[in-house]
Amino acid sequence: MEGTDKKCNDTRERLIQAAGEVFAQRGFKGATVREISRCANANIAAVNYHFGDKEELYYEVLKNSLSSVMKKYPPDLGVTPESTPEERLHAFIRSLLFRVLDESRPTWHARLMAREIAEPTAALDQLIENILGPLYGYLTVVVKQLISDEANDELVHNCIFSIMGQCLFYHNSRHVISKLYHKKFGPEVIERLSTHIMRFSIGAIRDLGILDTKSAKV
Amino acid sequence: MEGTDKKCNDTRERLIQAAGEVFAQRGFKGATVREISRCANANIAAVNYHFGDKEELYYEVLKNSLSSVMKKYPPDLGVTPESTPEERLHAFIRSLLFRVLDESRPTWHARLMAREIAEPTAALDQLIENILGPLYGYLTVVVKQLISDEANDELVHNCIFSIMGQCLFYHNSRHVISKLYHKKFGPEVIERLSTHIMRFSIGAIRDLGILDTKSAKV
DNA sequence: GCATGATTAAAACATTTGTTTGAAACAGTC
DNA sequence: GACTGTTTCAAACAAATGTTTTAATCATGC
Questions:
Q1: CB pair distance less than 8 Å for A172 and B200
Q2: For residues A87 and A80, what is the distance between their CA atoms, to the nearest angstrom?
Q3: Residue A207 and residue A137 share a domain
Q4: Which among B95, B71, B91, B66 has a CA at the least distance from the CA of B81?
Q5: A81: Cβ–Cβ under 8 A, 6 or more apart, which residues?
Q6: What is d(CA B44, CA B38) in angstroms, rounded to the nearest whole number?
């Protein structure tokens, strides 16, 4: 009836869920195993028994979170290999926005990842290898198609950073946005945002692509 | 010879400097008054004597940091009221990038502010009122001039978010960028980045402005 | 020189926190 | 039902941390 289905008695699983919430809310240092245990209806010793120590639990939570969130919103959600680069970019942006903004489901995945990106622990390498690397790679291919296949690397990198930056901003600065503009991010707002970022970026890339091919010709 | 000039013996001042470094590096929770005191060559009791408690010291550090960094890189650095909107936007972006990326000077200001933005304490309101509010306001004016004075508010907001997002990305994701692309942000790289973001945004805004005025005509 | 107030110093205090311990409860097997 | 390995529990431990205390030191005005 509330999150955990069918009275799942597996303490280990409950600990991971609870730890996700608490780590996301308070950070690794701020989270206490006592609070985690209490939220999971488990004994204080449960964390050490099942995971060895707090840090190992954190890794487990992060790993768990990653696969789950990428499964729900894959970068090519709703497009096929036959789609145009524009459609693929739009899909990428849309997925990314939903991944980091959707508050209608266990919300700690995005916050946890943002935390790890902003202030990495030793787990960042794993995060890059499994998630961020492929993600940036995918976007690179799409952007290269949009500009031209011989576009110089620096321009391509700058463009994918511009796109990623626009999307992630709404998560990183959400408290400021909410205080300054009283904006909330429901699904329909996210849709409009994704359209905006897509148009903004396509327009920009077209311009820069023209500049680039011109300078390449010189 | 090293940061503090003329053997400034004021313990209070040394504490603020040291606390800035430590808070930026470890976060509020992770920073210990013992480490701060040690870095400041002060006694453990000094923090409580001079500031009451750890939290009050944090507020003081934040306040101090804000005024200092905005003084060094004001948003209209190098432009006059007669400059074109394009020039003003470029100056804004350049300043913002230097503000968050310049590692050649006491570097904790930006990290401290990023921390507060990503996970606010009670001090965020003050930060918004004194710094972020005016900053966003200034950018809004510039962007409005670029699109058209009757541009609809949502479009303008989305555009300033797109610009802020592109800039802040390089700070928030610096560890990922560094691991994926082995990029370091020296002054000349920052200059090139600011030019890229300026072009990217101007191109995009032009396009969207045309769309906007067309739809406004309908 | 000394009295006064501000500052510093070292030690101690009270909590909090991650972890360990040892016994109890449980589950499955023969 | 006794044995075995696993899981849970309450209590305790050791280290760390913010804060307080009490005395010493310093600076300044008389």
A1: no
A2: 9
A3: yes
A4: B91
A5: none
A6: 8
Residues of chain A contacting residue B119, judged by C-beta atoms under 8 Å apart = 27
- Supply the range of the domain harboring residue B31: 1-61
**Do residue A86 and residue A177 come from a single domain?**
yes
Tell me how far CA of residue B108 lies from CA of A32, B21, B65, B75, in angstroms.
27, 6, 8, 19
- In a domain, residue A191? The reply is yes
Tokens of A42: 């488990």
* Residue B184 belongs to domain with CATH number: 1.10.357.10
Q: Do B133 and A207 touch (CB under 8 A)?
A: no
Separation in Å, CA of B77 to nearest CA in chain A: 23
Q: Chain B window 101-160: which residues touch A at a Cβ cutoff of 8 Å?
A: 114-115, 117-120, 124-125, 128, 132-133, 136, 154-155, 157-159
Which nucleotide lies at the shortest CA–C1' distance from B50?
A: C7
Q: Is B2 helix (H, G, I), strand (E, B) or coil?
A: strand
Same domain? For B204 and B124 the reply is yes
Nucleotide nearest to A34 (CA to C1'): C17
Q: How many beta carbons lie within 10 A of that of residue A191, not counting itself?
A: 13
Check CB contact of A197 with chain B, cutoff 8 Å. yes
With respect to residue B68, please indicate whether it lies within any of the assigned structural domains: no
Question: What are A23's two structure tokens?
Answer: 């780590």
Model confidence at B210: pLDDT above 80: no
B175 shares a domain with B100: yes
Domain shared by A21 and A104, yes or no: no
Question: For chain A, what is the domain count?
Answer: 2
pLDDT > 70: percent of chain A: 92
Could you tell me if B167 and B112 lie in one domain?
yes
pLDDT digits (tens, 9 = 90+) for B93-143: 999 999 899 877 677 888 889 988 988 888 889 889 988 999 999 999 999
Which residue from B37, B39, B61 is spatially nearest to B49, judged by alpha carbons?
A: B37
Residues constituting chain A: 218
Size of chain B in residues: 218
CA dihedral sign of residues B57, B58, B63, B68: positive
**Between residues B66 and A209, which one has the greater pLDDT?**
B66
Q: For A7 and D4, how far is CA from C1' in angstroms?
A: 28
Query: Using CA atoms, how far apart are residues B72 and B95, in angstroms rounded to an integer?
Result: 9
Output the distance from A214 CA to D25 C1' rounded to whole Å. Answer: 74
> How far apart, in Å, are the Cα atoms of A134 and each of A96, A129, A141?
13, 7, 11
